[in-house]
Amino acid sequence: MLRSVKAQDYMCEALITFKPETDLFEAINALVDNGITGAPVIDSGGKLVGLLSEADCLRAILTLTYHEEEMGGVVGDYMVDEVHTVNYDADIIAVAEEFINNGRRRLPVVKDGKVIGQISRRDILRAVEIFAQDG
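and the corresponding structure tokens:
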């Protein structure tokens, strides 16, 4: 049964993360170089404080262009600080519902308040594919 498959089983553990003080253009380069669309933002204690997405970066660039500024600022200036997360032991059906109901592409996976991974819509599809092949 698909409900027995957990977020931790298919999440990505090798995460690119940023700190709020990370230079915006350094973050943009990391997103592009790693072929990812967003990354969690964590504080020095490892606590999740935000999420930076491609859309946030585009918004920042448009804002900077509008104000004719050359400086990019830092991730903390442009990240979204209200972040939906999933618990590491959430079943993938609940995760899929979160994606559908809230229009998310990726969700940080947390355990005891710390980010331990990230799961995407593609990870859910991969889990379903593998489950279907084994079933």
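(Above: one complete record from the training split.) The CA atoms of residues 18 and 77 lie 12 Å apart.
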